[in-house]
Design brief:
The complex is a heterodimer of chains A (788) and B (263).
Chain A: H1 15-19, E1 35-41, E2 47-53, H2 55-58, E3 63-68, E4 103-104, E5 110-116, H3 119-128, E6 130-135, H4 142-145, E7 161-168, H5 170-178, E8 182-190, E9 202-207, E10 214-218, H6 223-235, E11 242-245, H7 261-273, E12 277-280, H8 283-289, E13 296-304, E14 310-322, E15 349-358, H9 372-390, H10 394-401, E16 410-411, E17 417-418, H11 423-434, H12 439-448, E18 451-461, H13 469-474, E19 483-489, E20 495-499, H14 508-520, E21 527-530, H15 548-574, E22 582-585, E23 588-591, E24 597-599, H16 600-608, E25 623-628, E26 637-647, E27 653-663, H17 670-690, E28 721-724, H18 744-761, H19 772-787
Parallel strand pairs in A: 1-12, 10-11, 14-15, 20-21, 27-28
Antiparallel strand pairs in A: 1-5, 2-4, 2-6, 3-5, 7-15, 8-13, 9-10, 9-12, 13-14, 16-17, 18-26, 19-20, 19-25, 22-23, 23-24, 26-27
Helix pairs in contact in A: 9-10, 9-18, 14-15, 15-16, 17-18
Chain B: E1 5-8, H1 12-18, E2 23-26, H2 32-37, E3 45-48, E4 58-61, E5 64-68, H3 73-78, H4 80-85, H5 87-94, H6 99-104, H7 107-113, H8 120-127, E6 130-133, E7 137-139, H9 140-143, E8 144-146, E9 149-150, E10 158-163, E11 168-175, E12 182-191, E13 194-200, E14 208-209, H10 211-219, H11 244-261
Parallel strand pairs in B: 1-3, 2-3
Antiparallel strand pairs in B: 4-5, 5-10, 6-7, 6-10, 8-9, 11-12, 12-13, 13-14
Classes of the chains: A alpha+beta (788), B alpha+beta (263).
Chain lengths: 788, 263
């Protein structure tokens, strides 16, 4: 099956339905007797709800029900990760009611739910609801929230601090700084982003009067997690009475991991009304209700010896949580950020302090990369500054500090143990791809045209394949992070795979089928990949943190191995051979040294028609299940280099070249991987150059539409030259040797292009996004300096 | 969207009669329809000009062009007459919005809406166009009166726009990276009567003429003639996308580029 097995760029089988408009997204689903919900949201960043006037709306045509926080007294939307303060105490963990109770804490906070027969009627009635607010002072930025005497988002969170956490050996860091040859410093902002999946969120709650069963259809990256969180913590519905379906989902980028208020509202409401309720976000609602990403303010310092070796790194970060703690919000700036601060370097001592801060803004949570882009941006910027101050080549200072291939497994000073890698290989390849040596000539040619040309290198590493349950459990995670796969072989030899890894753009239906084809030697038409329904898939922790192939794929391999093991027993019986002599290859069981053979299909049929069968030793049927809990994270790494030209007159930037050399270990489908990297780079460059979420000082969202929030377009970028390393280092601890590739681009790209801009302008640092005005101002200052 | 009555007008006279009170006229709908969808407007009635054939078409007249109000941006961009008489106008039309907008949006709708970041107002003012309505002819200088404000009265409908041909002209647009509307757009036209420079996107009150540039360029039509003429940031927009200072600077840069590109 070489044409469709591992390593082949098979075209994505799911694309036919997506590209022809035949996908089934949540909003495409309509249930019998369905009603429609519109949510009246807070126009204020912080206010006390004095009175909700709903009489007029209630009397309007088609209105079925109006719910307020008083009506919906249920559990709190939970936070999935407990972070401890430096003093050992627990973080401040305020409640998060699905509908605001007494107070609203950000623009967009749900206040009233209007349910009507049609969406139009619900819209009309929602406009007739008026709410009397007492507007309270608010804080909409990290700076405002951490000022002495700032208004409090939560009375219990003094100084608006959720937690004050640290990782690393501070004494060792201080000692290294005391003896350092050079100390370089940076103050940076990691700009706040709005995820903007193509499909807005939607949810349908359904209730079966006959059985008392609930069903939630939702735009989720992890339906089982939603079932667990909503069932156990919010609505007290046992798993056996609650089905969660996440059908085709149009992109997530992290924003569809979390359990959102609207899911609980429609599910609970369906039970109240005994009728289905549909809610679909408008785009403007997405801007003010989807969890945002990033939003860090950081001061960092790097100590170096006289040869440019890194001695120690310290970083102090303020991380914006927004008004409520979203599902994974608390672990993003801590265990997904500080643990990555070693990067690909041998820095022996690292200390990082993170203070998480409440503000009157939409909750902030993981967004493509989640903590790792923030770590990589910090590290790759400060390393560039170090190169500048040490008068060293940016590529060479990195190389000098690389962890060497002989040092693996490598224990970093910030908890992680890297199993394998080859950082020289990806750096060498990227330098060659961009013709690094030829840069001086290209810069001179640009200067002759009046343009400023710059080059920027970024070497990233990420911890993916999230995550070993025991490790994350010891760090405060309230869930395990394994994955589950079920392989059902049907009597005719076709196979259904039930995986907990949800696909919402990643192409699992193709990639996972390739793994099955490779292992079982059957054609892909006989392989069905099923995901996204708790009634079909036994269990699953879902898709995020570049974990699907590394964890979900590994679970699949384990389950397939069990199928093959049982198949060998059946085949041995049929061929009257000893099990140990039976081999399985290319879809055939054979007996070594003979011409005896049974196809996979024959064995499957025998399992279901067990006339000639080892019935005393083996059950009939051919279906196996496996859970896989990883032993370690996986560590994809690579080198990205950007080359830019700047128009001094306007500050307009053009990316002339962008090269990527990644090490994802073993690759299942190179085309899909390349696509993932392309998308990731586009999002990374979007953060660096275009995207920024802006609130005004009163907590109003100024970037609440595409007129103001700048999403990248295809013509903003050149073609990216994306290649896989010629010396890959397969993961050592999962059966496929895979590492994951979904987030790399978004992690590695921002520092590459920002380093290139700083290089072109001769400036130490510039915060993202690098808008034309910012670049123009820096270019002017640069020219003024040059003239002196 | 709120409910409204819909009327497809058979003639301009019908449309003028129907467009009273809370009724609104819809041309291409590229601004109005999204506004309705966001429930930001609730007209009692939409009077659609889409069925009035007389309003569509481009005529070469007296060296210039007269463009029917319901002519799409794409038609202007691709018109042999426009390309011949005023290539800068065809270029401008080619750069409006995206293909969907260019194939639905109309010149009449654009000037009647007078979005402060729209492109056509700059062309109308710089070229000294005449906006023709069902009631009168209005000089472009008198037509655009403020943000989304024009000299149009109730029941008055733009029927065509006449552009005299300049000796040479060009339009240069610096796009807002998010919306891609003009952050600054500068239309420079060298006419027999002198040089006219109109700026869109930047001004707090919408399109405006830049007299100091016009005077300098009338004496010496070259980019260098603008060197050292400072653009005052006062009266320019300042928002999350660009400061007034930056817009002032970009006005100079775009004007110089337009002069250099003029044909």
């Amino acid at each position: 099956m070489a044409d469709m097995g591992i390593g082949v760029s098979v075209k994505r089988r799911e694309d036919a339905r997506f590209l022809t408009g035949n996908g089934t997204y949540t909003d495409d689903i309509n249930r019998h007797g369905q009603t429609h919900a519109i949510i009246v949201r807070s126009p204020h960043a912080h206010a006390r709800i004095k009175k909700i006037n709903q009489a007029k709306a209630k009397a309007m045509p088609g209105v079925v029900a109006i719910f307020t926080g008083e009506d919906m007294k249920v559990g709190s939307l939970p936070c999935g990760w407990l972070i401890k303060n430096q003093d050992g105490s627990n973080m401040v963990e305020p409640g998060h009611p699905p509908i605001a109770q007494g107070k609203v804490r950000h623009v967009g906070d749900p206040v009233v739910v209007v349910v009507a027969e049609t969406r139009q009627q619900a819209l009309e009635a929602a406009e007739a609801v008026t709410v009397d607010y007492e507007v309270l002072p608010s804080v909409s930025s990290l700076k405002a929230a951490t000022k002495a005497g700032a208004p409090l988002v939560w009375d219990e969170a003094k100084g608006n601090i959720c937690y004050d956490w640290a990782l690393g050996d501070k004494a060792a860091v201080d000692a290294a700084f005391a003896g350092a040859h050079k100390i370089v410093k940076i103050d940076l902002v990691n700009n706040r982003l709005i995820p903007n999946a193509m499909e807005p969120r939607a949810a349908i709650g359904d209730f079966d009067k006959a059985t008392g069963d609930y069903t939630l259809y939702t735009t989720s990256q992890n339906p089982h997690v939603i079932r667990l969180l909503m069932g156990a913590f919010v609505l007290s519905i046992p798993e056996s009475k609650l089905r969660v379906v996440a059908p085709d989902v149009g992109g997530g980028f992290g924003s569809k991991i979390y359990h959102y208020a609207e899911e609980a509202i429609v599910t609970w409401g369906a039970g109240q009304l005994k009728r289905p309720i549909k809610w679909t976000a408008e785009r403007s609602e997405s801007f003010m209700s989807d969890a945002h990403g990033r939003d860090h303010v950081t001061h960092a310092e790097l100590a170096l010896d006289k040869d440019g070796k890194f001695l120690a790194l310290k970083a102090e970060t303020l991380a914006n949580m927004g008004a409520y703690l979203s599902t994974f919000a608390t672990c993003v700036p801590t265990y997904l950020h500080a643990t990555l601060l070693a990067g690909v370097y041998t820095t022996p001592a690292i200390w990082c302090n993170v203070k998480a801060v409440f503000t009157n803004t939409v909750p902030v949570d993981a967004y493509r990369g989640a903590g790792r882009p923030e770590a990589t941006f910090l590290l790759e910027r400060i390393v560039d500054i170090a190169a500048r101050e040490m008068k060293m080549d940016p590529a060479e200072i990195r190389r000098k500090n690389f962890i060497q291939t002989s040092q693996f497994p490598y224990q970093t000073p910030v908890a992680l143990q890297y199993d394998t890698g080859n950082y020289d290989a990806t750096l060498d390849m990227a330098l060659k791809m961009i013709d690094y040596k030829g840069f001086a000539g290209r810069k001179a040619a640009a200067a002759a045209k009046g343009k400023l040309r710059g080059i920027g290198v970024s070497c990233y590493i990420e911890a993916c394949g999230i995550a070993p349950s025991a490790v994350v459990g010891s760090l405060g995670a309230r869930a395990g992070l394994y994955e589950c796969a079920n392989v059902r072989v049907h009597p005719t030899g076709s196979v259904s795979i039930f995986t907990g890894s949800h696909s919402h753009g990643q192409g699992h239906e193709t990639t996972f089928a390739q793994v099955v084809a490779e292992k079982l030697g059957i054609p892909s038409e006989q392989i069905e990949i099923v995901h996204g329904d708790t009634a079909k898939v036994p269990f699953g922790m879902g898709t995020y943190g570049s974990r699907s192939i590394a964890v979900g794929g590994a679970a699949l391999v384990k389950a397939l191995d069990k199928i093959i093991l049982k198949g060998r027993k059946i085949a041995a019986h049929l061929m009257e051979a000893s099990e140990k002599d039976v081999e399985f290859k290319d879809g055939k069981f054979t007996v070594a040294g003979t011409d005896k053979a049974k196809t996979f299909g024959e064995v499957a049929l025998t399992a279901y028609v067990p006339h000639n069968y080892p019935i005393t030793e083996l059950e009939p049927g051919l279906e196996e299940q496996a859970f896989y809990d990883p032993l370690n994270f996986t560590y994809p790494s690579g080198c990205y280099i950007a080359e830019v030209e700047i128009d001094k007159d306007t500050g307009t930037l053009e990316i002339m070249r962008f090269v990527a050399s990644d090490d994802f270990g073993k690759i299942i489908n190179p085309m899909i991987v390349e696509g993932q990297v392309h998308g990731g780079i586009a999002q990374g460059l979007g953060q660096a150059l275009l995207e920024s979420c802006v609130y005004d000082k009163d907590g109003q969202l100024l970037t609440g539409s595409y007129n103001d929030y700048c999403m990248p377009r295809a013509d903003d970028f050149p073609n990216f030259d994306v290649q896989h390393t010629d010396k890959p280092t397969p993961c050592t601890h999962n059966p496929l040797g895979v590492k994951g590739c979904g987030e790399a681009g978004a992690i590695g790209a921002p520092p590459a292009v920002m380093n290139a801009i700083c290089n072109a302008l001769g400036v130490v640092h510039m915060d993202m996004p690098a808008t034309p005005e910012k670049i123009w101002r820096a270019a002017n200052a640069h020219m003024a300096r040059a003239a002196e | 969207m709120y409910n409204f009555e819909y009327q497809k007008a058979g003639s301009v006279a019908d449309a003028a009669k129907a467009a009273t009170g809370e009724a609104k006229i819809v041309a291409g709908g590229m601004t109005l329809i999204p506004t309705l969808k966001l429930r930001l407007a609730s007209p009692s009635k939409l009077v659609d000009l889409g069925g009035i054939k007389d309003l569509v078409g481009i005529k070469a007249e007296g060296g210039g062009v007269t463009i029917g109000a319901m002519t799409t941006h794409a038609a202007v961009a691709n018109s042999a007459e426009v390309k011949k008489a005023i290539p800068a106008l065809a270029d401008l039309a080619e750069g409006i919005g995206d293909p969907a907008v260019r194939n639905r949006g109309t010149i009449g709708g654009s000037v009647a809406n007078n979005d402060p970041a729209a492109d056509y107002p700059a062309a109308c003012v710089a070229l000294g166009a005449t906006i023709v309505t069902n009631k009168r002819k209005i000089a472009a200088d008198d037509f655009f009166t403020g943000l989304f404000e024009t000299a149009l009265q109730e029941g008055e409908i733009v029927t065509s726009i006449s552009f005299p041909a300049p000796e040479k002209a060009a339009y240069q647009k610096f796009r807002n990276p998010a919306s891609r509307y003009a952050l600054v757009g500068v239309f420079v036209a060298k006419t027999k009567a002198g040089v006219r420079v109109a700026v869109t996107g930047a001004g707090e009150g919408g399109v405006f003429r830049k007299k100091s540039f016009e005077d300098a360029l009338s004496k010496n039509f070259s980019a260098a003639a603008l060197d050292g003429i400072k653009v005052d940031a006062k009266g320019l927009n300042s928002d999350i996308h660009a400061s007034a200072d930056y817009r002032a600077h970009i006005i100079s840069v775009m004007a110089k580029r337009a002069v250099a590109a003029a044909k």
